[in-house]
Amino acid sequence: MQTAKAIAVPARLMPVVDARWFRPAAALLCGVAAATGFVPLGWWPLCLAALAGLTALGFSATSAGSAFRSGWFFGVGHFTLGLNWIATAFTYQAAMPGWLGWVGVFLLSLFLAIYPGLAVLAAWAVTLHGRAPEDRSPAAFLLAFAALWIGCEFLRATIFTGFAWNPLAAVTLGGFDRPGLAILSQFLGTYALSGLVVLMAGCWWLAIMWRRRRIASLLLIVLPASLMLAPWPVVGQRAGDLPFHLVQPDIRQEVLNEPQFYERNFVKTIQLSGMPAEEAETRLVIWPESGVPDFLQPGYPDRYYRQATFAADPEIARARIANLLGPGSLLLTGTIDLVIPPGGDRATGAENVVTAIAPDGDIADSYAKAHLVPFGEYLPLRALLEPLGFTRLVPGTLDFRAGPGARTLDLGRWGKAGIQICYEIVFSGEVVDPANRPDYIMNPSNDGWFGAWGPPQHLAQARLRAIEEGLPVLRATTTGISAVIDAGGVVRAHVPRHVAASIEGNVPPALAPTPFARMGIWLSLAWGALLFAIALVALRRRGG
Question: What is the pTM for the complete model shown?
Fold first, then answer.
């Protein structure tokens, strides 16, 4: 078997290559470049080239520390640029200075960078540590790196409640009218698709390593581009039967939580909601997160209802909403429920919920958000951090309480709805109750404080969930981007940012359960285990 030869470095360049800062700087720049593969930029060739650079740095590492630092510095650059939208959130609160947002992004990136660092370190330790240069297998290293990247993305989404934002798989999405290579996520899952992205990038690195094998090298160069540019099939284009009316009121973050604007905001939302064409027409009306500022549940002490938009009686408030929407309309809207202990008269917490209001004004059902945003909906280590001046970014002093997790609301003639509020939609394998599969997923959100990069990235991850699960996603946001995504990941209609508008149509139908819908996250982990096993076989063939 032909072995890969080391690339000779001219003597005059050795001081640069050997400089202590070279590898960290190169890894940092590769991380920044890789983040440009995500929307709104979508520069996937640069992303693949940057990942190829990280692979080269990992393979050429001379120690465990060098390998880990290569991945860690990559992660620092990658997450600092990709998560820049988090800094914008700090400009919408007065308790902390706005510049602290960039400090928060950087500190978060220092932590998240541990995961790519571990992936590089583990691949190096398994395939390269203790081996003579002539016994090192580039192919084995690449396969192990891709497998371990799958595992580390899963860990990033799991440990300390998880932060699954921007998996590498998101760079494979095509334009709104086509799913692109991301269509494979129904067979792989998002994390395994991220491993495929690492493999594609590694093909470019192998093309350099195996440059003397001209035909193989050429194929390795062409393969990733061919996969990304191929006309992958569009599925799930049938028309549905359930009429819907989805509203984006474009209520800016500056006025969303101000009581003096509640009435104006509600009137704007109700005017965009339209009326059914016929008196008894069945239709689903969808409002975003924070769609109704009133407390809709009964039984709270009177003081909690006093700043209501309609009346201090939640039953009257719900009845007025139902009357304005029409007799055949069921509303799914974001709102807040309070947590009051039995016999108590003071709230000890709150829940971020979606409430279903039936045509008669009754509450048909509700769902409480399970994946809460640290520092957004609750303050971790409150007893320690609050005295230091830290606070939540969402107004209010009560921490939110997590709901029990994904479940399906059976809404009768309005179908079976799976609900994922805002950030929850980014968690692969956690958005659907597999024992009670819904007809569609409703994803209300408030992205008004996420800058220019957050909303398109959020939408991209909602598209991945639609493809994985084979379910349409109805995404209503306060300021955009709202969208109707079919079960094949195609955006059938959308409202851009900072536009007040609505979308009417029929809910796209669900597909048959995909392999991922049947197996869940275990499918992604199984692909990772298979890649790792192939890497070990490649090592044995290389000489053990």
Answer: 0.91
